[in-house]
Amino acid sequence: MMDVKRVKVRDIEVGGEKLTVAAGPCVLDTFDEALSIAREMKKYCAEFGFNYIFKASFDKANRTSIKSYRGPGLERGLEWLSEIGKEAGVPVVTDIHEPYQAEIAAKHVDLLQIPAFLCRQTDLLAAASRTGRPLNVKKAQFMAPEDMASVVGKCRESGCRDVILCERGTSFGYHELSVDFRSLPVMRALGCPVMFDATHSVQKPGGMGTCSGGDRAFALPLMRAAVAIGVDALFMEVHPDPERAKCDGPNSIPMADVRGALRQVYEIDKVVRGKIGFTDVK
């Protein structure tokens, strides 16, 4: 894979020798459940030699319905995320939606995430960049991958050179997203590590009327394809029981299936990174 700038997230490097996995529930529901997910994911990632970052939202400000569950909120949610990072011993990423949240969130988490719909918001990018934290910026569903050069430029001009770019599918209307895997090397050519969001790529925004739908059956095939092309990180939403998840259940991967999925990713990643030859694959 082409060399890119390595991004330090607490004690791990995204874009280095290891694949990084960012995984957790879509939104924080209970502290105990989130901590349990973080600990289990850390164990699985360690088994396969992957870096691990816990992800969850403290507030889902972009829900389909105003009546949808949004999370525990800024103050309590960030306290939970900080404590999960300490107790599980893992770096943490969460998304912010407004400029004022950047400095507050940066005191509690290790990586700030800019949601796809907001990646062109100059004030939000600038505020996040000024915190000194690395950023994970999701490519908007309506943008071409090469257009992320301007997004990266805004971040760098605002003081942040540690930028990860994340692919999460492109919208063509009628609740469907499509992934053009050419976008991964295109964005990586901007000098940034690239993350592939497997579960949001199979989301159906607004597909259930008052909430988003999705089809998790396609998440693993897309993960395999992304790793085969060569990515630095994978992003996925996981849950012990997706059917009762308060957000993004239809596209979340059940915890019971996570280890098997990571095993397949591990085998492909070894080949791509040149750790084994094709004749050695069993």
Automatic annotation (TrEMBL):
Subcellular location, record wording: Cytoplasm
UniProt GO BP: keto-3-deoxy-D-manno-octulosonic acid biosynthetic process
Known catalytic reactions: D-arabinose 5-phosphate + phosphoenolpyruvate + H2O = 3-deoxy-alpha-D-manno-2-octulosonate-8-phosphate + phosphate
Pathway named in the protein's UniProt entry: Bacterial outer membrane biogenesis; lipopolysaccharide biosynthesis; Carbohydrate biosynthesis; 3-deoxy-D-manno-octulosonate biosynthesis; 3-deoxy-D-manno-octulosonate from D-ribulose 5-phosphate: step 2/3
UniProt keywords, alphabetically: Cytoplasm, Lipopolysaccharide biosynthesis, Transferase
Broad class of where this protein is predominantly found: cytoplasm
Listed InterPro entries: Aldolase_TIM, DAHP1/KDSA, KDO8P_synthase
SUPFAM superfamilies associated with the record: Aldolase
Any one Gene Ontology molecular-function term assigned to this protein's record: 3-deoxy-8-phosphooctulonate synthase activity
Domain DAHP synthetase I/KDSA: 12-269
Listed HAMAP family: KDO8P_synth (MF_00056)
NCBIfam families with a match to the protein in the record: KDO8P_synth, PRK05198.1
Protein name: 2-dehydro-3-deoxyphosphooctonate aldolase
Organism: Synergistes jonesii
